[in-house]
Amino acid sequence: MAKDVIIALDFSKKEEALNFLDKFEGQSVFVKIGMELFYKEGPEIVKEIKKRGHKIFLDLKIHDIPNTCIGATKSLLDLDVDMFNYHAAGGFNMLSSASKVIKDSNKDVVTLAVTMLTSTDEDIMHEELKIDKDLKLDEVVLQYAKLAKKSELSGIVCSALEVPKIKEELGKDFITVTPGIRKVKKALDDQKRVVTPKEARELGSDYIVVGRPIRSAEDPLKEYIEIKKEFLGE
Ligand code: C5P
After folding, report:
1. I need a labelling partner for 41 at 20 to 30 A (CA). Which of 8, 142, 223, 234 fits?
2. What does the pLDDT read at residue 198?
């Protein structure tokens, strides 16, 4: 399975994203486009970045009734992106009906489930979402991951620290995409639980998502190459 570094393109404007990508001239990189950029610029930004030869994880976190989810999936398949995702909380019907559409399309795309958002803690889970008080957050993440696997999605987004347990329970081919990566443990920004690229490799992550450490580097290309080498163990 291909391991790779995904660069989070957390920009609000097309020009900013494209100027940043100019620094990677000649390199084909894997980028993550989120709601901020997509809602502002629409499918055109995806087409432009694809035209430049980059791979795309379109992070739109679909969550709706199965019929709408099927329609959204068809629209995303038409964009020919390499990876996209759903909220596991949408349930088996939603996830599996999306999976079926993807299988029928014969397109080679990685589909992920978002388990529990990292902004949701155990208090919110119990008090607001009314999830059984006996369940710990990591147990719910595992349940959601199982639901994603049963629905035949390719994997989940999770913390690298959760990867060993996920792989043990769901198999090494179940893909894990992990944000929260920092080269040194002090540079946290707003991330709480971070690991280094080397630790992510040792824990078994398939893809790491890296935003600010690359975007704010003086030389983003150099930083990207260093992080990639460390992650791939080259
Ligand atoms: O800048 P930084 O490396 O922290 O960016 C990480 C990226 O991964 C951001 O786009 C963020 O939204 C995303 N992400 C995350 N934690 C999650 C899911 C996604 O940091 N649980």
Report:
1. 223
2. 97
Name the helix (H) or strand (E) containing 44. helix 43-51
Q: Which atom of ligand 1 is nearest to the CA of 182?
A: 3
| Cα–Cα distance, 74 to 76 (Å, whole number) | 5
Angle between helices 91-105 and 66-78 (to 10 degrees): 30
Q: Count Cβ atoms below 10 Å from residue 154 Cβ, excluding itself.
A: 21
Ligand 1 contacts (CB < 6 A) are 8, 10, 32, 34, 118, 157, 179-180, 189, 191, 209-213
Instruction: Give the active site residues.
Output: 61
Cα 24 to Cα 52, 101, 128, 172, 192, distances in angstroms:
10, 34, 44, 31, 29
Q: How many structural domains compose the chain? A: 1
Expressed in angstroms, the distance from the first to the final Cα of the chain is: 16
pLDDT classification of 193: cutoffs 50, 70, 90: confident
**Predicted confidence band of residue 180 (pLDDT cuts 50, 70, 90):** very high
The number of angstroms, rounded, from the C-alpha of 74 to the middle of its chain's C-alpha atoms is: 19
Which residues, in sequence order, are bridge partners of residue 34?
59
187 has a pLDDT exceeding 80: no
Average pLDDT value for the chain: 95
Q: Is the pTM of this model over 0.70?
A: yes
Please give the pLDDT value at position 30: 98
Print the domain residue range for 80.
4-232
Phi, psi of 85 (to 5 degrees): -145, 165
Do 33 and 228 form a contact (C-beta atoms < 8 A)? Answer: no
